[in-house]
Amino acid sequence: MPRVSEEHLEARRRQILEAARRCFVLNGFHATSMQDVIDAAGLSTGAVYRYFSGKDELITTIAGEGLGQLAAAIEPVLAAEDPPPLDEVLALVLERIERIQAERQLAGLAVQVWAEALRSPVMREWFRDSIRRVRGWFEDLLAIHQARGAIQPGESCRSAAQVLATLVPGFLVQLALLDDVDAEAFRDGLRTLGLGGGVRAWEAPAERAAGAGDPGAAP
After folding, report:
1. Would you say the pTM of this structure is higher than 0.90?
2. Which of 33, 107, 198, 217 lies at a 20 to 30 A Cα distance from 186?
3. Is residue 95 exposed (0-12), middle (13-18) or buried (19+ Cβ within 10 Å)?
4. How far, in Å, CA of 106 to CA of 21, rounded?
């Protein structure tokens, strides 16, 4: 039956990806050979190469699944009629990253992808596409706030999105290498910097100061 065949093929594909992920997490990308992946998957060489051309495709597929999970969390939020404030959206993204890290150890793999992107044209192009996608999320969100009057009309949402997009890899690097970071700490930091909570967080400093001195100003 065609359906059984498709399920069988997907099961084999997942078997290979899980074996590769375990190998990359345990030994690192460079120290893992395709033979290591083949052995870990318990399949023949031909069976593995039927699905994946090599390590670059394996690791970008694994990382791409993590990005897909982030997209599944944030894109419906951006499509809502009334998206939440920036700090809430960022917290959602970072909390989802934490969950993926707990389940699949995404952070260390992400760092390896970025390092390999300096050498591999395939992985470099994947990284560029991924960062552009993340930038697009933030640019869309900032444009919504700008339309509400929360960001001055002349300000560039694209430039601000480039800055915000660095929070994702920055969080992943710290998550991979340190033990004192989490999504809530990052969210608190954003609030400290005045990047969350609502419209007034986006006003110019002079306007915030004027509002603070006006007893009738909105909180």
Report:
1. no
2. 217
3. middle
4. 9
Number of H helices, E strands in the chain: 11, 0
Tell me how far apart the alpha carbons of residues 126 and 57 are, in angstroms, rounded to a whole number. 10
Half-sphere exposure of 51 (CA within 13 A, CB side): 23
The mean pLDDT value for 91-105 works out to 87
d(CA 176, CA 155): 34
Residue with the two structure tokens 């969390």: 73
CA–CA dist 155, 148 (Å, integer): 13
> pLDDT (tens digit, 9 = 90+) per residue, 131-170?
999 999 999 988 988 888 878 888 899 999 999 899 888 9
Interatomic CA distance for residues 90 and 73, integer angstroms: 11
